Amino acid sequence: MKRALVFAAAALVLIVSSGPASDPSYLEEYIEVFVRWAITADTIIAEVKDVSSASAPVEVGDVVWVRYSGIECPESDEYFSAPATEANKELVENKTVYLVIDPRRAIDGDIVLAYAFLDLSGDKMVNKILLSEGAAAATPHFPSVSYAKEFGALAETARHEKVGMWKCLGKGPFALLYVKAVEECICLVNTSNTTANLRGWTISDWEGSYTFDRDIFVAPTEVYPVYDETYNPDGDDRLLRLRDAFDQVFLHNRSGILVDYYDWCNESWCPEGGEVWKPDAEAEELHKPTATCVRIAYINIDEVFSVFTEAVADLREKELDKQKELLGLQQQLDAGTISHEEYNVRSVELEVELLQAELDTDIGTIDAMMAASELADIYNELQPLRELAQVLIHATKNLVSTVHIGVVDVLRTHSRYLDVKNASTQLDQLLTQAATARIVQVAEKVAVENSYDLVLQTRNVIVYANPARFFDITEEVKRQLLSLF
To answer: Nearest CA to 165 among 87, 98, 247?
Structure first.
């Protein structure tokens, strides 16, 4: 079902007659043709025998390709194509047929779009017969929608009665639960009482299709949403892509048999004078969602925090150097190359110097955030943190001076160190809260831009049952956060 619905060029549109195009009880203006071949269920090659309108796009003697307007039928490589084509052959091949053209769309490339009638009474339209027999689906060819409501009702009846291509509808285990066209989301559900595998199943519309090529096990009643990141990552109009105003989605099992169908039509899509078919209450109930098609994303907060540390990379490097010195000192003690006394003296110096480096990093981070114009909304929140950091830095410098000249009162010095260290820890917590608030704002922006319903932190999730159904937005949040500095 891959045929694209191409808009016709305005220069090729023919005005034939408004009477027959609306709902003819008899044909006044028509093109009489003799059908040589029925190529597919909805395409014929015919010779023009008579033209009752001087404005027709064809002349007597022309051999033309004709497609039935307002319907779509299975292609030659698709399920039910052979029976549908045979049904068309029996109706029209080697017979005289009368074509009525909708004035709003008469030509699609080199193909004439028409409503085909078996006689001049206007009662036996081939398009309608094929719909009734389940050999076609109703698909308005914009802007030719004169019969959209009637065609839709006929197709719905055929589906309800499970005739033709619709005979296996509902024979799961999978079904189309719901479709969100705007969000490019197709929700499948396992209707059986056992776990089922989606491998080999196909979802499609008239433009293209996607076949699941890996094992995807879905539990009973579980809803499995599929997004365009999976079935059309490049947004190619020639592939499966949901139209917001009108489209149809089909679900085929591993054998290619059609087992479910979902369509929608936005009333604003139809031009003035056209009718929009809407399913009756029973049909609407069949497609009423019983679960939500939720887009879930996740973010690695720890990794996103690297944006802030990268803004003060030089200060962070000094902090890391002090940590390495402390580690090296411990290794020297373990190796017996220094005494415990030497270790105690030097470790106190390094711990105080590390504390100073940590505070330098904090105040550097605060200054970078306050200098960023895009972060002006949290300037007032950062100012008190900077003032606290300045006080702690002054206290730490005094400690550094004390330990460098030699500690006189070890207990008092250690007590002062612990006071500054505790205050520094509180500063870190407040700064982390401010940074987290900004990360959350950016993550929310990314979620809205990409229509995610829920964003999780990786640290809060123990197990991902199916990682392919979750979206990592860490890098995008980092990118947008970096652009603020």
So the answer is: 87
**CA–CA gap between residue 69 and residue 151 (Å, rounded):** 10
**117: helix, coil or strand?**
strand
User: What is the DSSP code (8-state) at residue 28?
Assistant: S
Tell me the average pLDDT across 63-68. 90
Nearest to 27 by CA among 112, 114, 113, 119: 119
Structure tokens at 167: 């005979």
The conformation of residue 433, written as its DSSP 8-state character, comes to: H
Q: How far is CA 368 from the centre of its chain?
A: 36
Q: Where are the domains of the chain?
A: 10-142, 174-292, 299-482
Residue 7 per-residue DSSP state: P
Instruction: Supply 21's token pair.
Output: 């195009």
Q: Is the pLDDT of residue 361 over 60?
A: yes
DSSP 385-431: HHHHHHHHHHHHHHHHHHHHH--S-HHHHHHHHHHHHHHHHHHHHHH
Given the structure tokens 């365009």, which residue do they identify? 228
Among the four given CATH numbers 3.90.1150.10, 1.10.260.40, 2.40.50.90, 2.40.30.60, the one describing domain 10-142: 2.40.50.90
User: For position 278, what pLDDT does the model report?
Assistant: 44
The encoded tokens of residue 20 equal: 């027959």
Q: Please tell me the least confidently modeled range out of 202-211, 294-303, 454-463.
A: 454-463
Instruction: Give phi and psi for 52, each to the nearest 5.
Output: -90, -5
| Residue that is written with structure tokens 């080697």 in the block | 94
Task: For 439-462, give the DSSP string.
Answer: HHHHHHHHHHHTT-SEEEEGGG-S
**Pairing state between β 43-51 and 31-38:** antiparallel
Distance CA 182, CA 246 (A): 11
pLDDT score of 346: 86
Kindly indicate whether the domain formed by 174-292 is annotated with CATH number 2.120.10.90.
no
Which single residue is written with the structure tokens 């003799």? Answer: 34
- The one-letter amino acid at 413: T
Higher pLDDT: 23 or 459? It is 459
Q: 93-131: buried (b, 16+ CB within 10 Å) or exposed (e) per residue?
A: beeebbbbbbbbbbbbeeebbbbbbbeeebeebbbbbbb
Q: What is the pLDDT of residues 16-25, one digit of tens each?
A: 333 333 444 4
Return the residue matching tokens 């069949």: 286
| pLDDT of 142 | 62
Token pair listed for 36: 């040589």
